[in-house]
Amino acid sequence: MSTPTISRESPPAVAQLPSRKGLPKATRWRGGSRHIAAVLFLLPTVLVFGLFSWWPIIRSLVLSFQQTNLVEPASWVGLQNYQTLLDDPLLGKAVWNTLVFTGLALLIGFPLPLFLAVLMSELRRGAGLMRVLVYLPVAVPPVVAVLMWKWFYDPDSGLFNEVLGKVGLGPYPWLQSADTAMTSLVVEATWAGAGGAVLIYLAALASVPTELYEAAELDGASVRRRLWHVTLPHMRSVLLIMMLLQVINTFQVFTEPFVLTDGGPEDSTVTVLLLIYRYAFVSGDYGSAAALSVSLAAVLAVLSAIYLRLTRTWGTK
After folding, report:
1. In whole angstroms, what is the distance from residue 145 CA to residue 153 CA?
2. DSSP 75
């Protein structure tokens, strides 16, 4: 009895893409020419970006080690400008005021746009009008908005004291008291910048699957539980990025303290950027101004790196 033989056919060969060396010369030239065309197309953008973004950073770094009035040739002074900063008693107060502004801005200005976005997403009528009204302050030029709020805060004829006076309250020295000046700046900054954050949050809310909300409603989840267990987890990555951007922006606050209070009263609203302005355009010490600018940029870069390192997996959980 013969034993049946088992056919041992070789597996089919896997198709492989031809290497670049095996391509015809004309084909290789067309591929290379496309890369060259892409580089040439991007080159003007890269040059403009480098000229107006990276070159000022490099120039500021060099200037931080020099002493100059921007007219006569600069002299190299090494770390003297940084030592001048450390010897300035106002630096510590400016750093503290900036940290206070950032903390109040996160406490007041971070949850408010999210609350408005959730509220507007639940509206069935008038949602478009609400979006226009919320975004309208962003369209107002910053200096115009700050001057308008300066009139609102006026202790004698301002809008706020006039309204509160109708009910027997006030007048209050909103910007003239060290106890209320910083909070007043934060309120104005929140009003001016909330509109952009609201639109971003609305776009993020639109990406949440409606099936999850429907399933939560069938399970009897309240609005608060739907917000906590459905909405916020799907917006985690957006919230993390928005918080980082807000911290960076609030560390660089300048317009509000410059126009509303000029750093007063009693230097209670002097911020780091306002101190940089005073070094450069009041004292004419451009080297110290550049040194403080470089220090602020370095601090923000380190904080951003640490923040991104700590939160890199939070957006995917």
Report:
1. 12
2. E
pLDDT tens for 196-215 read 999 899 888 888 888 887 78
Write out the H or E segment, with its range, that includes residue 126: none
Could you read off the pLDDT of 224-265 as tens digits, one per residue?
Answer: 787 788 888 888 889 999 999 999 999 999 999 999 999 989
Give the number of other CB atoms < 10 A from CB of residue 310: 10
* 296 has pLDDT over 90: yes
Among residues 124, 38, 67, 77, which one has the least CA distance to residue 283? 67
3-class secondary structure, 66 = strand
Distance CA 95, CA 292 (A): 11
Coil, strand, or helix at residue 76? strand
Percent of the chain with pLDDT over 70: 88
Q: Is the pLDDT of residue 119 over 90?
A: no
CA nearest to 245, candidates 304, 201, 198, 188: 304
Residue with tokens 């609201």: 198
User: What does the buried/exposed string (b/e) look like for 38-53 if buried means 16 or more CB atoms within 10 Å of the residue's CB?
Assistant: eeeeeeeeeeeeeeee
Q: CA 227 to CA 213: how far, in whole Å?
A: 9
Taking the model in full, what pTM does it have? 0.82
How confident is the model at residue 131, as a pLDDT?
84
Give the separation between CA 155 and CA 66, rounded to whole angstroms.
45
Cα 51 to Cα 37, 68, 292, 301: the distances in Å are 22, 22, 22, 21
